[in-house]
Amino acid sequence: MNLCSPSVVRRLMEEEGISFRKEFGQNFLIDPTVPERIAASCAERQDILVLEIGPGIGCLTQQLAEHYERVLAVEIDRGLIPVLGKTLADYDNVRVVNADVMELDLQALLSEEAGGREIAVCANLPYYITTPILMRLLECGVRFRSITVMIQNEVAARLAAKPGTADYGAITAVLGYYGTVKKLFTVSPGCFMPAPKVSSAVIRIDLFDTPRYTPRDEAFFFRLIRAAFGMRRKTLVNALGALGEGYSKEVLTEAITACGFPPTVRGERLSTEDFVRLADELVARKGE
Ligand code: SAM
Fold first, then answer.
1. Alpha-carbon distances of 238 from 55, 232, 234, 261, rounded to whole Å
2. Which of 13, 76, 109, 130 to mutate to test the pocket of ligand 1 (most atoms within 8 A of CB)?
3. Which of 2, 9, 31, 250 has its CA 20 to 30 A from that of 207?
4. Mapped to the 3 state alphabet, what secondary structure does 25-82 carry?
């Protein structure tokens, strides 16, 4: 069964009396080369567990099941579960869970499922919730090896941006704390049914095995990044006024210059490493 054939997709959905649900970001892949390419980009080794978010009718799931030892696919739409029962019937290495990935206890589920295997994430993500899903994956306490996802091209540019460029933002600096991001390839709207209005891109985030950065106060480090980009047009000193943690302008300026930046620098020039240094400089000056 060719799951990337529009007539097959339509027939499978008609058989279950379901239609595309926009509120779940359902744009299914209909170009067979794309799921193949995404699956192949996900990991170098085969003996891993892959977490797929949003299998849809299962075109990427099938490819993942061919490439890797085990696949756990989490699908929010109950109507798609019987479809997946048919399309994945030949794969005994796939488990489908009907749930909202934002609500699941991923740590418990994955440790039970992985059986000691490394875990990678691979998904054609629903675009309405891309960033919250990525943040959840990064913060859920599971040590993923990598996260390979298709997202809007514009969001991919933001996630993979370099400091000092227009696309660089808080999410880029935060992602840099967890790993390195690479944009792999772009995918045109015509490869989906229904076709979205924008282009898409596949990125891969390779997560650090052991933390590369160890700020003295991790929560403060994240608050600092948020404040630095809260008012993008302002200088970093002025933007950090919104931190509301009692730092005077003098102390902020002193900490910024101690990191090797001029007092007029804007937040977008600082890399993740720079933010770690700045956070530590400020923690050391607390109460001054
Ligand atoms: N993997 C399929 C493909 O590539 O053709 C479908 C991808 S479609 C862009 C996104 C999928 O994510 C849909 O099947 C949708 O129902 C599912 N989804 C949306 N929100 C979800 C959530 N919070 N948790 C789990 N699945 C979700």
1. 45, 10, 6, 15
2. 76
3. 31
4. CCCEECCCHHHHHHHHHCCCCCCCEEEEECCCCCHHHHHHHHHCCEEEEEECCHHHHH
CA 32 to ligand 1 center in whole angstroms: 17
Of the candidates 149, 283, 6, the residue with the CA atom closest to the CA atom of residue 159? 149
> Whose alpha carbon is nearest atom 20 of ligand 1?
24
For residue range 43-88, list pLDDT tens digits in order: 999 999 999 999 999 999 999 999 999 999 999 999 999 999 999 9
Q: Residue 26 Cα, ligand 1 centroid: separation in angstroms? A: 6
Q: At 274, list the tokens.
A: 């720079």
In this structure, are residues 84 and 75 in contact, taking their beta carbons and an 8 Å threshold? yes
Determine if ligand 1 sits within 6 Å of the CB of residue 59: yes
pLDDT in tens, 187-239: 999 999 999 999 999 999 999 999 999 999 999 999 999 999 998 789 999 99
Give the ligand 1 atom nearest the CA of 61.
1
Peptide bond into 35 cis (omega under 30): no
Residue-range domains of the chain with CATH: 6-207 (3.40.50.150), 218-284 (1.10.8.100)
* Cβ–ligand 1 contact at 28 (below 6 Å): yes
Please name the residue whose Cα sits nearest to atom 5 of ligand 1.
28
User: Which H/E stretch holds residue 221?
Assistant: helix 218-230
